[in-house]
Design goal:
2 copies of one chain form a homodimer.
Chain A: E1 7-10, E2 14-17, H1 34-37, E3 40-45, H2 49-60, E4 65-68, E5 80-83, E6 86-89, H3 100-108, E7 115-117, E8 128-133, E9 136-140, H4 142-157, H5 180-184, H6 188-195, H7 201-215, H8 224-233, H9 238-246, E10 248-250, H10 254-267, E11 271-274, E12 279-283, E13 291-295, E14 300-308, H11 312-315, E15 319-321, H12 326-334, E16 341-347, E17 356-359, E18 367-373, E19 379-385, H13 397-406, E20 414-419, H14 439-448, E21 454-456, H15 469-487, H16 491-497
Parallel strand pairs in A: 3-4, 3-14, 4-11, 8-17, 12-15, 14-21
Antiparallel strand pairs in A: 1-2, 1-20, 5-6, 7-10, 8-9, 12-13, 13-14, 16-19, 16-20, 17-18, 18-19
Helix pairs in contact in A: 2-10, 2-15, 3-15, 4-7, 12-14
């Protein structure tokens, strides 16, 4: 099936919108008439991992659940497109056994042996190419690359003589040490200013490229504390970051994983769903009678509870009644800063499989790695750009091709580009969450607050792997449990049976 | 409530059996008559974390479930006793956010801020005391301790120039690299023999004490591959091991965590339970009519499916019909090797809070740390012995007190001992699972196999954090899902409602 989302470019066909995905759901609905099928126990708005998890948990627990999704597919900001027998990850990709919620699901769905490594240094060029200006490259071994980044990241994170362990001992309880607030309020730029004299030019370029790869933002608007949070979640080491952030992916692509949640929920017989159904308003002012969700096309759905998984940067497009609390509104209006551009390039040099590169700050794609070999024998490179030097990859393909080429001039010709422009996606308005300075300390609690019959859940305000697939599952799990506790576990049925 | 399990000794009262625990369930049953309450959808045998997880998942999913437990309490090999306002962990203790299944439950039950660090080096003696003979001690800083163990463990694990990453890239898929089989078949002693010339005396003593702490066995009967598996799960580093294995515990004790599962299951109204009810036989030869479980006291219970969570070393005490498969029987007969002795000592020296020690090989307790400060202002030391120099702590308290004293001669007087003798416990017959050489490659698949209507689940044969609380939850989750898929998700009810 082909989604309307995503773009592909080849020299032969040029730029085309829409790529195939296992995540597309067809037909887009299994309900005919809202009067006949409702009222629902729960409506879940959004079919990303958070919504899928909540939907799965609620249907398994016996609740009649309606899933409303704006797109034609499941997965939200994580989905894959299988093109010519090769899976391209359009958004969230990597997982690791140190990510508790996603790994719990991976073992539960018996996919622990369905993962592949991104890095493969067993053949080909086997080097790291650092470009700090458009006229030259420095080549290093991957061991030297690791040492460069390890050294730079240790300087960056070492605010307490213990690489953050003292100021952030419990990353899920971020302000356990109240002093941590000051790091949350500090920007990347401010932290770099504190350590700039300790950094070599190569360390500084690599460090900035790496931390901007994490935030997708700019040095001035990315929170240093949020990076420290990723760092603590990863075990306070560079190797932990590499392992958790960019090492292991699903052999068949993310959408194969998302479908497991979907199929389990469908299999209960308790799931109603409507895809291609963006929501206009969520009204909860009927005195306990339920929450009414109205779609853009005017259809109305009513349920006892709503789980709203709409991302932070999109929340302000929905009308809520009664009005949301101030903390939520101010966070929604500020938005998170991640304007990452992720571009896949299939290139005609098989030896690039073992290549990694940083081109910063001059290039519009700053970090890339050899991520696979396509069935045609070409190398698949995955390339990242950030808001610090932003590109809209669909607007001028020549400029996108130039940015890919600048990563390793003369090393390859591009046979294919595949990407999703998350910044222009009206249902995402950016990539994974990354905090502005002070945003987490100021707004996290407020974002996690329920609002009458509406439970808000999204990786954007998870406690652990916030921004990750793991955080989405954490939040979907939380939301389902809130509803489960409130609506009971179908006590009346039980009593009838016991 | 006081459990029959566990021992306490004080100078005033001497040795007494049975200590208080939040995990005791009273009254011990909520069913009156098997004819009236049965038949059950599922019987879960065993109320440790594996059984509790399966029970919780199954009752939430709508199944009428009966939990049978031999003891008077939940928690199995993980439970805590709160004595004079201080929790002593009688078995499994430590958790970390890199342990996926247990951490998923910790966040789900909102206990992410209910943890405390074991180590506290902020005051007191603040040193590591290494004793390789009974006549002298070497004192080191904790930094030097870390460097000693890091160096030794890197030599021990570095079979591939990559500290195990190459031979064990996917620890949940242990024989992904078939060559790994040879490490699984290798004993600790054989591996030490390979590297003995690279190890200093202090490295070798510390290393042996540390790896025996992990296995609870002897150098000759502990599998090197199983240690590499722990190492890989921990991120292939010494620091990762310390973080995951011995750093964070529940402020209120394990039993406070176990109760969350219990209360959720009870709250569904679908749970029947009988404590103090050891099982005698499990019979599944009635041609699809169900599985019959008979208790030692002759009571019979029938269910469509049985989830059997009895530990490996106890399985052979149960009569199964039809007979179990050869692979299971041979693993049951061999048993795992962990004969760990864990002894808590409350000592009258508050400065020991920041002490750690290894006394090996001469002493019957080889590894200990300052683990807390009791309300009386004393230091709580947690001390471990292994089968390599075994002690039965309840048999001769003077000998136990001597072994505690030998850890740091002259440094303290013992005010209290608290322990559970897992080796003599008829429902455990050892502590956490640790593999003999070749046992995992030979028996793991067989141990995980179902047997007709009986699903076998236990941390002893988990794929990930095997032997850990995490592995127990992994297995309980798996078992519940198997049953859920087979018995359906109560389709008939659903259709009636939709």
């Amino acid at each position: 099936m082909t989604s309307r989302d995503g773009y592909q470019w080849t020299p032969e066909s040029g730029l085309t919108q829409g790529v195939p995905s296992l995540g597309v759901i067809s037909p887009p609905t299994n309900i005919r008439d809202t009067d006949k099928d409702g009222p629902w126990d729960v409506i879940v708005i959004g079919g990303g991992y958070c919504g899928l998890t909540a939907t799965r948990d609620l249907t398994v627990a016996g609740f009649k659940t309606l899933l409303l999704e704006a797109r034609d597919r499941i997965g939200g900001r994580s989905w894959s497109s299988n093109i010519d027998g090769y899976p391209y990850e359009m958004g969230g990709t990597w997982v690791h056994w140190h990510q508790s919620h996603v790994w719990r699901e991976i073992t539960r769905y018996k996919m622990h042996n369905a993962l592949s490594p991104s890095f493969n240094f067993s053949r080909g060029v086997n080097h790291f190419q650092l470009r700090t200006n458009p006229t030259s490259s420095t080549y290093m071994t991957h061991e030297a690359e690791d040492e460069l980044l390890r050294s730079a990241l240790h300087k960056f994170t070492n605010v307490d003589g213990a690489n953050g362990r003292t100021v952030l001992p419990f990353p899920h309880d971020m302000f356990h040490v109240p002093e941590f607030r000051k790091y949350d309020e500090m920007s990347y730029a401010e932290r770099i200013e504190q350590i700039k004299d300790e950094l070599s030019l190569n360390e500084r370029s690599s460090l900035e490229a790496f931390i901007l790869l994490c935030s997708g933002g700019r040095m001035e608007n990315s929170s240093f504390g949020e990076f420290l949070h990723w760092w603590a979640m990863s075990g306070y080491t560079y190797q932990g970051c590499m392992d958790c952030l960019i090492s292991y992916k699903f052999t068949e692509g993310q959408s194969a994983f998302a479908r497991r949640f979907w199929e389990e929920a469908v299999g209960t017989g308790r799931l109603g769903y409507v895809f291609e159904c963006p929501v206009r308003s969520v009204v909860d002012d009927e005195g306990g009678k339920g929450v009414r969700v109205t779609a853009r096309d005017g259809r109305e759905f009513v349920a006892k509870r709503v789980v709203c998984t709409i991302p932070l940067n999109v929340l302000s497009t929905i009308h809520f009644s009664p009005a949301l609390a101030t903390e939520k509104v101010s966070a929604m209006q500020a938005g998170h800063v991640n304007m990452c551009t992720k571009v896949h390039a299939e290139v005609d040099n098989k030896d690039m499989r073992s290549w990694t590169g940083i081109s910063y700050p001059f290039n519009k794609l700053c970090y890339a790695i050899g991520d696979g070999t396509t069935p045609a024998g070409n190398t698949h490179l995955v390339c990242f750009g950030t808001d610090a030097n932003h590109i809209q990859p669909d607007e001028d393909v020549r400029e996108t091709l130039k940015a890919v080429g600048e990563l390793a001039p003369g090393a390859f010709r591009v046979k294919r580009l595949v990407f999703h422009n998350w910044v222009k996606d009206e249902f995402a308005k950016g990539a994974w969450f990354f905090s502005r300075p002070g945003m987490v300390s100021g707004c996290l609690d407020g974002l996690r607050e329920r609002h009458g019959g509406v439970v808000f859940a999204n990786s954007d305000w998870a406690l652990g792997w916030r921004s990750f697939i793991d955080g989405a599952i954490e939040e979907g799990t939380r939301a389902a449990r809130v509803v489960l506790e409130e609506l009971g576990t179908k006590r009346e049925e039980v009593k009838a049976r016991l």
